[in-house]
Design a protein that fits this description.
globular, 12-stranded mixed beta sheet, 232 residues, 12 strands, single chain, mainly beta, Pseudouridine synthase
């Protein structure tokens, strides 16, 4: 199912709506005035729709919204209790030293610059950020050198967390103009980070459910499309 602005609806019942957010589209209205998913959904369903979680504007992928406050609170509590699971695919520049690892940093957000940075854990306002990653494949390219596809299991949900942590670890995300020095002088490009799955307890059935989608068939994700593990 699709509606205006080409936002694909993956699932829809009386309580929740699961969509694929296009890269570059805001989750909700902001100072740019550009079209956003939340407003589009509210218009399409002719009712108030509630935002459960966010994706950075440059990031595409799967998201969930609710049709009522009760379902929103139910899912928000799962996020708080860390039973709402999210995974991502990322294409990074370089080859991680470890094929699999857990990254733990303490992060502080600079509201004025809309940036986050890793700091000492005792820094006032610092929040712990944790993710796990697995390297699926590394391919050498002519223009960008080694590019690696990672599957990421997000443990916490901090501001720009995945982008900052991977950059801090020495393998920044391809196309990220905020945290990848090699792309800071570029104009807009699609950041190669994609929200591919969410798993949660349904407010409708009370059962655990999981929804998955694949990254778009475009560079740099498509150079890995023959990697078996991308669909697992």
């Amino acid at each position: 199912m699709e509606f205006k602005n080409s936002v694909n609806i993956i699932f829809n019942d009386k309580n929740i709506i699961i969509v694929e957010k296009p890269a570059g589209m805001p989750c909700q209205s902001d100072k740019t005035g550009d079209r956003d998913i939340l407003s589009s959904l509210s218009e399409s369903f002719s009712s108030e729709i509630f935002l459960v979680h966010r994706l950075d504007r440059p990031i595409g992928g799967i998201m969930i919204f609710t049709k009522n406050k009760k379902s929103c609170a139910f899912l928000s509590e799962q996020i708080k209790e860390k039973t709402f699971k999210k995974t991502y695919f990322a294409v990074v520049c370089g080859t991680p030293t470890k094929r699999e690892d857990i990254l733990i940093n303490y992060i502080i957000k600079n509201q004025r610059l809309n940036l986050s940075k890793a700091v000492h854990k005792n820094t006032p306002g610092a929040k712990i950020a944790e993710l796990g990653y697995k390297t699926i494949n590394t391919i050498k390219t002519k223009d960008y050198g080694a590019l690696s596809l990672l599957k990421i299991d997000l443990k916490t949900g901090r501001h720009h967390q995945i982008r900052l942590q991977l950059s801090n670890a020495g393998f920044p995300i391809w196309g990220d103009t905020k945290y990848n020095v090699g792309f800071k002088r570029h104009g807009y490009v699609k950041t190669a980070l994609f929200s591919n799955s969410i798993e949660f307890t349904s407010p409708t059935t009370g059962k655990r459910v999981k929804y998955e989608i694949l990254p778009p068939d475009e560079f740099p994700f498509n150079i890995f499309k023959n990697s078996e593990q991308i669909i697992k």
